[in-house]
Amino acid sequence: MTNEELQRVDYRDRLLFVLSALDDLGEIMTQSKNISSIAKYFLRMMLGTVGISKGAIYCYDSQEECLHLESATLLYPESLGNLQLMLMDARNATRYTKPYYINDIPEKLAQIFKSWLLQWQNANTKILVVLAVHSTFLGVIGLGPCFMNRDYQKTDLEIIRLLARHISLSIYNRKLLSDTQQSISMLNQKVLELDQLHEIGLAITRLQSSDELLNDILTRAISILNARFGALWLLKNNGLHLAANFGFEPEKLPDILCSESAKTSSHCLNIPIQVRDKILGYLNVAGKESREGQFMPFTENDQQLLSAYANQAAVALENSMLHQDALEKERMDRELQIAAEIHRGLLPSEIPEVPGLEIAGEAIPCRTIGGDFYDVLPVSDTLYAVAIADVSGKSIPAAILVSTFHAALHLLKNQLNDLERVAFDLNELIYRATPENKFISACLMLWEPNTNSMRYVCGGHEPPFILKSDGSLIKLLPGGLTFGLFPSVTYHAASVFLEPDDLMCLYTDGITDIRNKADEFFGFDRFTDVCRKFRNLSASEIIHQINLAADEFREELPAPDDRTLIVIRKTK
Question: Rounded distance, CA 440 to CA 485, Å?
Fold first, then answer.
């Protein structure tokens, strides 16, 4: 056989060897768990098939932008480790995938590997092959001289090209498989985390006490991140308040948990707990532990997981706060209702019959509880008392002061025949029993049927008035200061005689101070005009008409104050 025929037979036999070896590739890839095993198998196949003394396979990590030495023979220098290679250069290298003699590689490829070209040459590298699939750069093969220092034949280069192509496909497929497995693992982890977040969300959003919820939120945050330390802070009064902690004493809290550096530290996560744009507080965790008990940095995934959890915690906290507010409001509403019932109990459920007079009264609070008071009570068989009062303030504080006035008035009931003395004692009692900024305006009257005389004393109250049958009006001027402002105040009583069909009105300033949308007061004149217009009606109907006129005047604006009316008509 000629030399040429022998070369053909040799090439054929080597191809058959390569093909038979590639037939085992599927089993190799199935058994191999990493690229190193595949690279080692292909390198040995290539060296053995072509008859090469040494070689190495480098694989490319696109994230680190680095060529890693994946497999090499013992004769290859260990000093040729890793090679930094920019991603753009790696993509440009995919254009040159055939085997090149290292002294004859294209200029652009030489430029890409210029920092390592001399080292490869010094290591007696003869052939350089780029591993790539389409535009994906996978690595580089470096091959030394053939055995016996023979020259590479054309058939050798063809076999190297063929094997390099299979190496590229194998590495590419293994990377795809690895990436797919990693994606599936990450997806399963995400599903597990979502299930965990769902269960945690259900747990922390159930109604529970505030302290239980705060400790529950922190404990679960630490659990899902395998952290050793944690703290939960709430914003209160424009400052951070430690609401829950785990793993350390409060007075020994690490500074990192409260500092700005906590936001960037890889060993501590500081996540805001916020609903929409409102920050409720901060969730801190620190000291992530490995299975071996060592501290390790938190990952970006840990931060995302804690952020998602913090969002659920924010909803739970807001719901808890709303629930607590609702409970507090319900409690206050109950107390207001009870106080309102007590206040209504201080007012007469029905006005007793008084000889010679037709009397009607009504008190309308502007809120749930009023601060006005009126009463009609018999003093003796021949004396009857009428009282009206307006307490400073509104709601519960005013109602308490009303009860004080009511108790004092009934305590002094048997002395009402001496109005000036009663007014003096009433002022003393109220002055001692109330704060400095609380006071009561009031008017006390004493009716004597036998003489048709109405004796009265007023302390800083709106002056009652009498509408005579001829349409004229008489104001009954006050006889002293408002009750409760100063001690030892002297009051002066006066008397007025009522004639048949005289109409007397006692009222609080909640009537005259009503305003409309034009900011006009209902005023005394409108008030007396209504009284004149309906003076022929019964006392209770007159009160009804006054309230109708006042409500119509304010045009659905809220009432500024409580209003109380007493209408007295002298019967014939």
Answer: 8
Residue 401, classified by CB atoms within 10 Å of its CB into exposed (0-12), middle (13-18) or buried (19+), is: buried
Distance CA 479, CA 327 (A): 48
Bridge partners (DSSP) listed for residue 496 = 454
Q: What phi, psi does 390 have (nearest 5°)? A: -130, 115
Averaged pLDDT for residues 295-316: 83
**Parallel, antiparallel, or unpaired: how do β-strands 357-364 and 372-378 relate?**
unpaired
DSSP string, 277-320: TEEEEEEEEEEEB-TTS-B-PPPHHHHHHHHHHHHHHHHHHHHH
Decide if 402 contacts 428 (C-beta within 8 A).
no
Distance CA(500)–CA(546), nearest Å, equals: 22
CA distance 157 to 134: 21
What is the distance between the alpha carbons of residues 275 and 260, in angstroms, rounded to a whole number? Answer: 22
- Write b or e for each residue in 230-265: b if 16 or more Cβ atoms lie within 10 A of its Cβ, otherwise e: bbbbbbeeeeeeebbbbebeeeeebebbbeeebeeb
Query: Residue 100: how many CB atoms within 10 A of its CB?
Result: 18
Q: Is 227 helix (H, G, I), strand (E, B) or coil?
A: strand
Contact, 216 vs 203, CB < 8 A?
yes
High-pLDDT (> 90) share of the chain, %: 28
Q: What is the DSSP string of 444-493?
A: EEEEETTTTEEEEEEESPPPPEEE-TTS-EEE----SPPBTSSSS-----
Please state, in angstroms and rounded to a whole number, the distance separating the CA atoms of residues 396 and 442. Answer: 19
- According to DSSP, the residues that pair with 447 across neighbouring strands are 384, 454
DSSP H or E segment with residue 365: none
Instruction: Look at residue 254 in the predicted model and tell me its pLDDT.
Output: 45
Which ranges constitute the DSSP H helices of 259-299? Answer: none
The tokens of 158 are what? 């063809």
pLDDT band at 261 (very low <50, low <70, confident <90, very high): very low
Would you state the structure tokens that stand for residue 368, as one six-digit string? 């749930």
